[in-house]
Amino acid sequence: MVIQPGRKKIIKAIVTVATALLTIVATAACGNTTSTTASSKAKTVDVAVSVNQWESVAKIIGGKDISLHVILSNDTVNARDFEPTASDVATLENAQLVLVNGAGYDRWATNAAQQGKAIIVDAASTDNIHAGDNPHVWFSSAVRQTTAKAYLKALEQIDPSDTSTFEANYKTWLAGEDKLQTEIASAKKELQGKPYAATAPVSHYIMKDLGMDIKTPTGFAQAELNNSTPAPADIEAFRTLINEKKIDLLVDNVQEANSTTNQLVALARSKGIPIVDFTETMPSQYSDLDIWETALINNIKTAAKQSTQKN
Fold it and tell me: Measured in whole angstroms, how far is the alpha carbon of residue 54 from the centre of its chain?
């Protein structure tokens, strides 16, 4: 059979089109296979963290096997004053694991998480610290250790297939924490017993770990802890402490500044007493709790040296 030239062109065109269609189908099939594989690999534990002070602990130990949501990371907002949006509440309710600070600091997060089915890791309660106690537990060496272990256990309970990965990640976190402990031990040799006062209780645990001697008037400290106004006698006692230079440095929580604390800071500056600024929420320039605390320790050491030189 002889095929005319015109028909040859038609047949060649049909073959070309058919080949192209087969290629598209094959590519689509391959694409679907890749998508399925990626989807199966993308199965992660849905983790919500109430405040960014605990973000790095969650991120390092969870690694690539978690989807992490941090509710409050704004360092101009105090967690106790924070009002979560409907979206924030939904995130907490739908998470598989929720890491909260506890001790009444972020009660809004605990309340929302309890409406869902998440495992809740309460950092403060892992070391028997509860509402009414000082809630700034991310600065406590002991609480960081107990929280990391509790968080690791929760991850392994939810996703036992990734236990070995979580364990390896935990060792990475622990290495960073060990480095911080070395920094604390070294700084403690310089700072042990040195007197300080604080406008708010945010620095309590870190200063305790450093062995420093708190001189803040008890009534003033308790009022600040309860988020109430200090009595005039307590304010005057604080002023006397500064005027008589009975402290080597003053710690100021700039995130909780008010007219009273601003006056105390101004008085301390006029007396040549060094000021060390603290915030509660981790500032944006730090990506890791240990790095942030190391920077604060360096600031404390610098302030203490300045005080010694002036005296």
Answer: 3
